[in-house]
User: What shape does this take?
Amino acid sequence: MIGPKPNLAKPLSLRGLAKRYATADGRTIEALLPVDLEITPGEFLVVVGPSGCGKSTLLNILAGLTSPSAGEAWVGDIRVEGPDIDRGMVFQDYALFPWLDVIGNVEFGLERKRIPRRERRGIAMRYLEMVGLTDFAEKRPRELSGGMKQRVAIARTFATEPSIIFMDEPFGALDALTRRYLQHQLLRIWQQHRKTVVFITHSVVEAIYLADRVVLMTARPGRIKTVLKIELPHPRDPTSDEFRSIERRVYADLDEELVKSFRMEGSDTGSPPTVIY
Amino acid sequence: MWWAVVLIAKPHMSLLPSPLLTAQTFVQLVASGELLSHAAYSVCRVLAAWSLAAVVAVPLGFAMGRWQRLERVLDPVVELFRPISPLAWIPLAILWFGIDEGGKIFVIFIGTFFPILLNTIAGAKNIDPVLIRAGRILGCTDDASLFRKVVLPAAMPQVIVGLRISFGTGWAAIIAAELVAARSGLGYLISNGMEVLRSDFVLVGMVTIGVLGVLFDAIFRWVDRCYNWMGE
Assistant: This one.
């Protein structure tokens, strides 16, 4: 096969990874309490939690975009010290380069990997085919819908053949139908390519639908509350009883924390608010 | 309307010549090569000063846009000098560089420098941070490649806006500079026309300034379309 040598999926280990920020008035904020976690090669791990629980911070540390204030992350036998093209990332707001056309975006990382122009084009087309967008290769990102943009971003990320892919609420800005369709496509692609995936969302259903394991995080300060193995076979049916019972369990855990954090914030009412979904 | 005013009010020829006479003068000046040479002087002065300003202001603008510390230091200086019209520099320019090319190029340099600088700063500063992160993730791990592959193209439309606006201000300022001190150029054509009471010269000069201004703007719009990814 011509093109980049496919990287095997690699394990990811987090050892005492923590992050604290200093605010302008000299206080420190614990964004993330020490996290220990082993992610096996080819695993689809989903981190779910309310906003402000430090899940994006965690992902940025793993991707090498932010440095931790304590602890370390290892991909295989390499310590994460900065961004690396071997670790891909899909962003919530697509982050397509607006001055490049669709295929130019997919080729961006391949060019950085110094793959010759002609091969680059072929590889990029293959990955556009994977997300069903070959007809849009010459279009500009602004001409695409949100769902199509995210498919381009997914193709761009997979095209560089990273061994790990981070996804930061990738479907958060999309409507429910597009979201459902892309979740399905992502699972298909993941099953073909068997990458290690760390996926962040605040949707419990999305987490259970996609994950091998769900990591439940809580806010203020961010820490892992529960790690849950999801053993349902794919494709999963969100309306099935098994799915529903897992969902109930996750919500029960989340509620406990939400009530706690609302209590801390809303001392004016005294009583915990009713949580409505 | 011009015709009408000339026919009804019958002003003295030195105040407002008829369009026909102006057109005849235009043809004469073109035929003798005078108009072309005056226009060429003006254009070359603006081009020289504007390119010089771009060479200094674009790199400085990127540096100030990307390094907050540098911007904090230099911003007060920029803000102090920016409101001073380039025309206010004409006396100093004459004192420092004489009435030859140096003085005029200096004035145009001042006039074109700030629009280029401020637009480049804005362009470099307002890059969506997620694009920077995406660039780093996709293999631009050093500053040089990140600049070349992400920062530069992302800021480009705004830089071109600055270049276009500044060319316009430069074009306006050169005429003023030539009115004050010059032996050539369209501004000289106008001021000389006034002195010898040839308002047809003045009008030919003015029309030429306008036409060239529109022409340059059209060229910039064309360049803009080639580089601007922001859409129609």
